[in-house]
Amino acid sequence: QVQLVESGGGLVQAGGSLRLSCAASGRTRSSYTMGWFRQAPGKEREFVAAISWNSGNTYYRDSAKGRFTISRDNAKNTVDLQMNSLKPEDTAVYYCATSSAGPVNSRYSYAYWGQGTQVTVSS
Hints:
By secondary structure, this protein is mostly beta strands.
């Protein structure tokens, strides 16, 4: 089992920044891809960003490119999501997750999930 705990969410005005963090414990594997997803009320959970085990590859949804940056520290078992130039449409609960196989942008590739952290961007 892997336990994931997110932190760093909150309320911010449009144009502001937030940094989300995810701490992993349990049977963690640095070989796992780590990802961030989000889910707004009434909508499906959607991919935001992912990072390969050695940080050599990063992936972003189109709307996050140039604004969000994902990073990881395998020694500390953490993955962060720096979010800049936030927009009201970024409002959602953000989840981190781990994947061992499958497309990095598919939620079905991820076996373990955190409980989520709320991000609210006011206009």
